[in-house]
Structure formats: C-alpha cells, structure tokens
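Schema walkthrough. Field components (list of strings):
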Amino acid sequence: MRVALLLAVLILGSTGGEIAITHGMKATGEPARLRPRELLAFLRRALQNGWFWAGVPLMALSFYSLLMLLSWQPISFVIPASALSYVVGTLGAKYILREDVSPARWIGVVLVCAGVALVAAG
Amino acid sequence: MRIRIKTLVMVLAMVVCANAGDLMLKRGMTQIGAVEISASGLRHAFLSTISNGTIWIGIVFLVGFMASYMTVLSWADYSYVMPAGAFGYALLTLLAVVFLHENVSPRRWVGVVLICVGVLLVGQTRPRTTEVAVREVAA
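Field assembly_structure (string):
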C-alpha cells in the first residue's frame, strides 16, 4: 500500500512537473535561432515563467519519493515500475497539453515503456 | 533549421548531458565514499560533495541537460521528446558492451531492441502537433 502510494507520487510528480514545464516553455516561445546568445535569452525568459516554478517542486517531490522507494524496494523493481511514467506522461500530453498522439506514437511509447522496464530489470 | 533536425540535435544533447552527468556524479560519490546517515555524517558528505571537482562537472552536465530539455520543449511535443529521450538507455547498454566489455542478458537486449524500434516509430511522427503562436524575439 505504502509502496503503491509512493510509486503514484513518483510517477504523477515527475509527469505533472514535466507537463507544467512543457506548458511554460510553449508559453515562453522558442528561440529564434540556436545560437548561444539566443539560447541564454530564452533560458532567462523561461526562468521568469510561473509554470516552470510550478513544475520544479513537483519534480523534487518525485525525486524524494524515488529515494524513499529505493530504501525499501530493490532498484530492479523501482526503475521498471517507474517506466510506467512514459504511458502516464503520454496520457497527460494528450488530455492536458492537447497534443495529437497518433497511433504510431502510441505504439512507440508502449514499446519504449516495455523496453526501459526490461533494460532496467537487467 | 528544420524542426526535425533541430529536435534531433537537442535530444542528442539531452542524452549526452544526462549520461555524462550521472557518470560524473557516480565517480565523484565513489571518491567520497559511503555516506553515513547521522548529523555529522551528512554534514561531512555535504562538505565533501561541494568541494569535489568531479561532482561539479556532473552538475554542469545536468544543468546542460535541463537547459536542452527546456529548449526543445519550447517547440516540440512533450509526447515526442519524452520517449525519444529513452534512447539513452539503449545507448548506455551499447557503450557498456563496446567499451567496458560488459555481459548483457538476453532480456536486456530485447529491451534495447524495443526501445530502438519505439524511438524510431515516435521519431517519424510530427514533432509538433499543437498550435502555439511563435514569439519571435529580437536578440
């Protein structure tokens, strides 16, 4: 029960944080060119975005639940289980960020999720 | 620059920075040794990590990872970049085989193949599907 709850915090924290950051970066607007000066100006604007700072504590929460989980469960359970975040993140991208997730992208995400679980399990 | 190419460049930067950063942190923490969980042990661990050069190189790489992740998300879909980043797991396995001559279990090889096929499938979809106004900023 405790493990399931922490796993949920781990997955929802990291995907929630990344979705907030994605929203903030889209609002920031992409750098016109990939030159150091434009990139630095982009990052400076990004750091002034509220959604970025909403995402950071969620990712920190996720990181601490990862550390706690690792102290109770073997890494060969924790990392494969956290690979579920690929699927949860894609659901968030579709329903919260309104991205168009085509069937090909869904199949790719499911393969990546299974692949990461297998690689992490050793 | 075409969106697919610049997305690929940034995803590669993310993967390289994340892996190099993790490697440096692991090296630095090995130099420091096992951390003792007590007030003085944690204080000692904190002081030795902030005075360790390898840890700082790792931190610079991880900041580079975060910066390239943020940059690519300013134009590409989250559901495109996130699975593409998993390519790093496959790359790490290949590097371990080629340079460290590690033995890799059949299960892990199956995982590497699934990741590569999955990333290729995601990679041929459109990198950006949302219509967000591009704010051109004069530098």
